[in-house]
Every structure is written in structure tokens, then in C-alpha cells.
Specification:
about 110 residues; mainly beta; five-stranded mixed β-sheet; about 10% helix
């Protein structure tokens, strides 16, 4: 694990970045050239990095049920800090990250 990299696409703006299987979607997202992305606790407890997975396969680590209900999880609404890709992923950012990752605010970082 760790050498496979998958393309993650943000549906709001079409921006993309690469993410290894051994790193969370949030860790990969932090490499985008966007200042002030709220990252919170990075451990699944604060809910700041909530996203909705539109397409792709992934593995989840434990996250707070205060921020992600069973229904959220079934609908693909999860915390980016606790999601590890197993294929290319398309996602939509929710909550506090939307303001920083809206249209035109990020540069592609696929490399």
C-alpha cells in the first residue's frame, strides 16, 4: 500500500489532485494551492472536513457519529480525514471547506 495513487476530482470546480492509498483524502487535498483550507483535528472528531463521495471506492477509518450519522455514511457523506481511496474518486465538499474550494479558487495539482 502507499504506492498506488488515485485522482481525486472536486466536482464544484473540477480541480484534481493525486492521493495515495495510505493517505487520507484530506492529506492529499492539503497539497492544493489553496490558502486557509480548514482542516480541524484530522482525526475524525470535529466534522470540519465533511465531503460527499459521488463516485469511487474507498476505505473508511473511525469517525465521530456526532458529525457523520449512519444515514450520512450510507449516502457517502463522510469526513475526508478518515477516507482512503482505492480508486479514482469524485467528491463534493460540504460545510466549512466549500468557501475555500469554490470555483476558481484552486489550481490543479495532479502530478
Amino acid at each position: 500500500m502507499g504506492t498506488l495513487r488515485h485522482t481525486v476530482t472536486l466536482t464544484e470546480c473540477g480541480r484534481q489532485y493525486l492521493c495515495r492509498e495510505d493517505e487520507s483524502l484530506l492529506a492529499g487535498l492539503s497539497r492544493l494551492d489553496v490558502r486557509g483550507i480548514p482542516v480541524g483535528c484530522r482525526g475524525g472528531g470535529c466534522g470540519v472536513c465533511k465531503v460527499e463521495i459521488i463516485e469511487g471506492s474507498f476505505v473508511l477509518a473511525l469517525m465521530s457519529r456526532d458529525h457523520v450519522s449512519d444515514a450520512d455514511e450510507r449516502a457517502g457523506r463522510v469526513l475526508a480525514c478518515r477516507v482512503f481511496p482505492r480508486s479514482d474518486v469524485r467528491l463534493r465538499v460540504l460545510g466549512k471547506m466549500q468557501a475555500r474550494l469554490g470555483k476558481g479558487q484552486a489550481k490543479n495539482s495532479v502530478a
